[in-house]
Amino acid sequence: MKQPPILNEVAGVPVAELAARYGTPLYAYDVGAIEARLARLASFDVIRYAQKAWSNLAVLDWLRRRDVLVDAVSAGEILRALAAGFEPQGDPPPIVYTADIFDHDALHLVVEHGIHVNCGSPDMISQLGEAAPGSEITLRINPGFGHGHSQKTNTGGPQSKHGIWHEQLEACLQQADRFGLAVTGIHMHIGSGCDFEHLSQVCHA
Question: Domain residues for 184?
Fold first, then answer.
């Protein structure tokens, strides 16, 4: 795998100068680079940042002030999103909790704050339905295949723990209906580092 180049500057400022000025260890971000990435996504109706990439409060606050929404995968990430100023509810939801399981703290937080849940398992549907009937949810589906730059980044298919198996979708919709949960969307994530040229060929085959 090709290694990324070693950087000796951030936003035109030499790393040695930053270290001398602020000390080390130091985390420095090039706001211009982040803005450029956001500009590439501007055609989408909603841009949602995955906190697991980096949940620095200053970065989260900066993104929030530019109307970027946030995804949380743990109770800790929910708390960080709230601390960064994200509202717990809205349309579209400013915070979405995406996971395959609930722990006690995460379930308590989503119920307390009315945070939207992207359910990745039938158990999550039951747990939320019992704790907060009438909520709106989305379902994370495993479509039966995955695609990533390696097996470690492949998050779809029978070898992946993530998502509701596609053959269980109808049963999960009925399960949600029994609890009065409104399913407002479907979510799939098949992997990271995909070969988009190959996927394009498959889509047009």
Answer: 33-203
